[in-house]
């Protein structure tokens, strides 16, 4: 009895093991493929994983795994067969596709994870991908949709007054977007209507965007441009504008009130001018009173920084009680020149000198480290192409705050320079192979004048601008904390453009004098006024001599 019972138990265990083996083998030959619901989104130029796996998990090391595009079964994106990835594949995906893990918990092919990894994404990669797995007795296929997005370059904003001088046309430009972004304009007080938007397609498939809006200068203080692909993917740029008020001609009460206002302002400016001359006469004459010498010895004071922007320039116009055209005429007056110069002298002192160690060997730098030009021995690498390699950095680094400097582009009474590059770069970053790498994402922000080719910026896809007349003196304002780099035509008293970005680490001024101009590129010393050799020459004019 005992031996018979043992035989029955052994038979039952054996039958169970055989049945379990059959079921496991059957399960190994029967499977379904699963993929993530919804499209997969990848960033242009980055990598992405298209997840695909078997259910239940089975070992797929001995199976055929094929990723292919619709109706391209025989020309796969990737083919795994006989335990290895085969050479047969679409040429555009060679060296860009591989099998990968869909998560860190995955055991790869042993658990049926057949996910695909794509590198260096392109616009043309967007679309449907088929995931196909085949065994001896079973196969399955699923599709994964890939969407490609690209967030464009930092926004470049600039404003111009319209003909009636009561409104401003604010423009916004950016490049490198995919798909086309939506555009929204806002102010510090309300949403603004879009005056117009245009999109252009670049050779790489991305879009450049230009939009504009009209604002009443008396209604808003700040204007913001928003470009977005979704609520989570957005770039924003802003610009400060100063209210411009013009009084209607022929108003019954305009005459006496305006005359009274002008009288008050003129005397106020004269009083301010006299006070400034008194307080800073040591800078103008080189002499100090005993009281001032004592104050200087006992208390080393720092000069406060004021931002040179549209608000400051237009404040002078407003206080003078004149419209823009009238002010530009009056700016040739000696009194106004001296007042404006002292304003810059007191509030916008940033001492910038060149760093010879960073200079290209074919540059010639002056002894005072303020002027630079191309050497006579320099031979351009390619005729007609701007020499981006001829750069030198400023010796001062910034990682916060506001900083301002000016660069003279017209010396010795010759025409303004046709070729120059002025801006910023991330400290220690100038070691890139070509112009295409000089972008904000690589730590370069600049405005470049390329002679007959016009002016352009360092955005991912270069934006061409037109300035008339050509700047004779360029003002550069860095607001590190706000992520803004602004350029001003000091001679014409106008704002040229503002680049909105995000700085990280230390940045240094960047200069390039170009090739072929008679004049050097000269950084002005704003810390103390230049002395004119002829006492009849205005102070500002004396700065134009070398």
Tell me about this structure.
Residues 15-28, 243-257, 281-310, 313-334, 344-348 and 528-546 have low confidence and may be disordered. With 546 residues, the chain is of the alpha+beta class. The strands form six sheets. An eleven-stranded antiparallel sheet has the order 16-17-13-12-30-29-28-23-32-21-20, with no helix packed on it. Strands 2-11-10-5-6-7 form a six-stranded mixed sheet, with no helix packed on it. It is elongated. A hairpin with a 3-residue loop joins strand 14 (182-187) and strand 15. The protein has helices at residues 2-29, 254-279, 281-285, 290-298, 310-319, 324-330, 334-347, 539-542, and strands spanning 32-35, 40-43, 48-50, 52-55, 64-68, 78-81, 84-85, 97-99, 116-118, 127-134, 139-149, 156-161, 167-177, 182-187, 191-192, 196-201, 207-216, 222-228, 234-240, 363-365, 371-374, 392-393, 402-408, 419-426, 444-450, 455-457, 464-465, 473-479, 484-489, 494-500, 507-512, 521-523. The protein has eight helices and 32 strands.
